[in-house]
Design a protein that fits this description.
Structural class: alpha/beta
Largest sheet: 6 strands, mixed
Number of strands: 14
Order of helices and strands: HEEHEHEHHEEEHHEHEEEEEE
Distance between the termini: 66 Å
CATH architecture: 4-Layer Sandwich
CATH topology: Purple Acid Phosphatase, chain A, domain 2
Radius of gyration: 19 Å
Strand content: 25-35%
Shape: globular
Helix content: 25-40%
Number of domains: 1
CATH class: Alpha Beta
Strand order of the largest sheet: 1-14-2-3-4-5
Length: about 280
């Protein structure tokens, strides 16, 4: 290769590396309007900020960039659907600080992901501290949100670790409506139920269980996104996952999937989601 060719190759490689570097520091906001059948009119127009899969990302000192973006959106509630930390992180004080700062914006509801499940001792300490701070930690339990005499339920389902990975990613625990009933009970009849569950791939089970609106993450938008195709890969090494980013529907049940905030990605910027609820 002659000198001009070497220089040109070097420039292209440097430009590509710079582009990837910049992309992995972008923070985008996507806004969705979601009409929920049976939603009490008191919740019409209420806004839910959806975050997921932070892992080791910081977004400025004290998470300032992330906090400022969230505050600007002025949500009524904040849902965080797991992987607040990575399994190999030991100092979780920054994550507690982040959740404290988010709580000053709006009430925060949090469910564990698979990385928390891989570090159960740290997850227990974190959950306890967050609960003491006033965060709604939904470890396979339900809380009621009341507003002007009306209410909805928010359930957090902590899926078994054997669902996420076994040896060779085979023979994983299949999520079924019956398994969910064993974890969190049945949804209250006649009451709209939102479900926080880290993995979006069992959407059909969530819908059949009775979730009106599910919030998930985990797939990181498919890690790499291709035009007209979408996400390429899930963390379980599943190519072209059916649910990777955006809003999906099965019958009357809907699901919002976050592309997440952390880890490597390509053509797939980190994402904050703002859902505006609409009653029918």
């Amino acid at each position: 290769m002659n000198l001009p060719a070497k220089i040109g190759t070097g420039v292209l490689v440097s430009a590509a590396a710079g582009w990837v570097f910049i992309q992995n520091r972008w923070l985008t906001t996507d806004k969705y309007e979601v009409t929920v059948p049976g939603l009490p009119k008191e919740f019409d127009g209420k806004k839910i900020l959806h975050l997921s899969d932070l892992h080791k990302k910081r977004y400025g000192d004290g998470f300032n960039n992330l906090i400022n973006s969230c505050r600007f959106l002025d949500p009524d509630y904040i849902f965080f659907t797991g992987d607040l930390f990575s399994r190999d992180e030991t100092n979780l004080d920054p994550k507690i600080l982040l959740m404290q700062r988010l709580m000053k914006i709006a009430p925060v509801y949090y469910v564990l992901g698979n990385h928390e499940g891989d570090a159960p001792d740290r997850a227990l300490v974190l959950s306890t501290k967050l609960s003491e701070e006033g965060i709604h930690v939904l470890n396979s339990r339900t809380e009621r949100i009341e507003l002007d005499g009306a209410h909805i339920n928010v359930t957090g389902a902590v899926l078994p670790q054997t669902h996420y990975h076994c040896e060779g990613y085979s023979n994983r625990t299949v999520i079924t409506p019956e398994l969910l009933k064993g974890l969190v009970g049945s949804p209250e009849k006649g009451t709209v139920t939102f479900l926080l569950a880290h993995d979006p791939l069992p959407f059909r089970a969530y819908a059949e269980w009775g979730a009106d609106l599910t919030f998930s993450g985990h797939v990181h938008g498919g890690i790499v996104r291709l035009p007209f195709i979408g996400g390429v890969l899930s963390p379980e090494r599943k190519f072209f996952p059916e649910y990777s980013k955006g809003v999906y529907r099965l019958g009357d049940s809907q699901m919002v999937v976050s592309a997440g905030l952390g880890k490597f990605r390509l053509h797939n910027p980190s994402q904050i989601i703002l859902v505006t609820l609409k009653s029918r």
